[in-house]
Amino acid sequence: MVYNCYRLIVGALSLQIALAARSCSNGVSLSFASSSADSFRVTYNNQNVQIQSTTYSFKNYKSPYSHNVALCYLKPYTVYTYSIEDKFKASFRSLPPVGEETELGIVGDFVFQDKSINNLLKPYNSKNSQALLVVRDWPYPNGDQSKWDKWFNLQAPTFSKLPVTGINGNHEDTDKEEKYTTYLNRMPGPISEENKNAFRTYYSADIGLVHAVFLDDYVGALHKVGGQNWLNERNLQLQWLKVTLHRWIALRLLT
């Protein structure tokens, strides 16, 4: 799915659950790709928003320009409409409030050409998915970076309307020298810059009634497996898990 904006190809649209920070409360991150570093006008809720553009290289491959913008301070479970240069327009529903009934779509290990994820836009037993969780292994690039471009375009009909987040698998970090490069550049979701720089992709997010915890099976894999640095990274993730679960339980007891 591609869109023509002033002769620029715009595609790979996705709505990603944003980092729960003071600067972007209850937000999503809109991400799309184009062949130009030029700034695009993005409008939502009748206001223009600031956009950032980045690109990255992997061996002989140079990525399209990725344009990212945070849509913040959204009212819970409310329909919002956004547009890109008045050439593409779509609507999505923000996340349900904490503690409310929640319906999630959970997918992973995609077949590269599989479009079945689009079925998650349809109600199931009269229930609509409110967010999409990807539990590792996104497009199986196996070293072919262009597959990321094609795959995101393939999933754009869903990703442009349904907030998505997830976690990496071996195909995003250890396989074919990926080393997290593409995943961290293309998924500006709820991972802090500090953790991105340290290749720590684990995190948690509150989505309605659900406290979703994402652990990286391969954390530390960029070090020698079984070595001290590898073990240190594994232990850091374990300690983080204990802290975040204890904090979540304490908050639930208060409410």
From TrEMBL:
The keyword Signal applies. SUPFAM superfamilies: Metallo-dependent phosphatases, Purple acid phosphatase, N-terminal domain. One of its GO terms (molecular function) is metal ion binding. Residues 1-20 form the signal peptide. The keyword Nuclease does not apply. It comes from the Eukaryota. Gene3D superfamilies: 3.60.21.10, Purple acid phosphatase-like, N-terminal (2.60.40.380). Keywords: Signal. PANTHER family: ACID PHOSPHATASE RELATED, PURPLE ACID PHOSPHATASE. This is Secreted protein. It comes from Thraustotheca clavata.
